[in-house]
Specification:
The chain is α+β, with helices and mostly antiparallel strands. The protein contains 6 helices and 11 strands. The strands form 2 sheets. It has a 6-stranded antiparallel β-sheet with strand order 4-5-6-7-10-11. A hairpin with a 5-residue loop joins strand 10 and strand 11 (188-192). The longest helix is centred in the last third of the chain and has 15 residues, at 207-221. The model has no long low-confidence stretch (mean pLDDT 86).
């Protein structure tokens, strides 16, 4: 899967035109309500959830378990990008969350950083993508050698705030718990939308964790007759295998 996210701005088309020689593989296009290109790229048909309500658009790209009806109903009540915070919690799985609300855009990845978001200024406006190379090619970015060394020293990713960057100069990523917002003028900014909950739950009160695990596993196994796992065999991996067996692909 590879895609770019464009602002609802005339210069968005110019940013898209600054494509690398190979371009995006098999490009598909989803438009803003205005008719300008919004999402451009290539994704499997079974890894996208798309709903709309008037001038509002919402797309989940990746592995998502969610009912479209309540998602669309919630979208119809949205009046600002901040109103999307609640909708971002409705779906289980691992996906990029992309919205276009009355000419403004919101893009965010997962808290685990399994699905990341990158952004850069291209043709005078902010452009986002799920892969940093798609932006680096457009701005002619050079490799940040210090960042490469940091990645090699920290195989699970650099800690905050060093995690905001990428291996390309000029290409950034929102901090954990932050989303990228792009205004009608094409300018981008990041905003915190999630904070860790207070450690107020007593030991043994873990039902919500079990439910979250089952929902997340069901997002990956639903409709699949065979599911395999290549895991370490430790306590956490063994538990996930038992959860996968209980979901039974239904």
């Amino acid at each position: 899967m590879e895609f770019v996210v464009l602002p609802d701005h005339p210069a968005g088309t110019d940013a898209l035109a600054l494509a690398p020689a190979s371009g995006l593989p098999g490009p598909k296009v989803i438009e803003h309500h205005s008719g300008r290109p919004w999402l451009v790229g290539d994704w499997p048909d079974d890894e996208i959830v798309s709903v709309s309500a008037g001038p509002r658009r919402l797309v989940l790209l990746g592995c998502a378990k969610v009912r479209q009806e309540p998602l669309a109903a919630g979208l119809s009540r949205v009046r600002s990008l901040a109103d999307l915070d609640g909708l971002a919690r409705l779906a289980a799985g691992s996906f990029q969350f992309v919205a276009s609300i009355d000419g403004e855009v919101r893009v965010q990845g997962t808290l685990s950083t399994a699905c990341q978001v990158f952004y850069a200024k291209v043709a005078g406006v902010t452009m986002a993508a799920n892969r940093p190379e798609a932006l680096a090619d457009r701005i002619g970015a050079t490799v940040d050698e210090e960042r490469v060394a940091l990645e090699l020293l920290s195989p699970f990713g650099p800690p905050e705030p060093l995690s905001e960057g990428s291996v390309w100069h000029g290409v950034r990523s929102p901090r954990i718990g932050h989303c990228l917002e792009i205004g009608r003028n094409g300018a981008g900014r990041t905003r915190r939308w999630w904070t860790p909950p207070a450690p107020a739950r007593p030991l043994g009160d873990g039902d919500f964790i079990r439910e979250a695990l089952f929902d997340a596993m069901l997002a990956r196994t639903a409709g699949r007759p065979v599911v395999s796992a290549d895991l370490s065999g430790g306590l956490d991996s063994t538990s996930l295998c038992f959860v996968a067996d209980r979901t039974d692909g239904t």
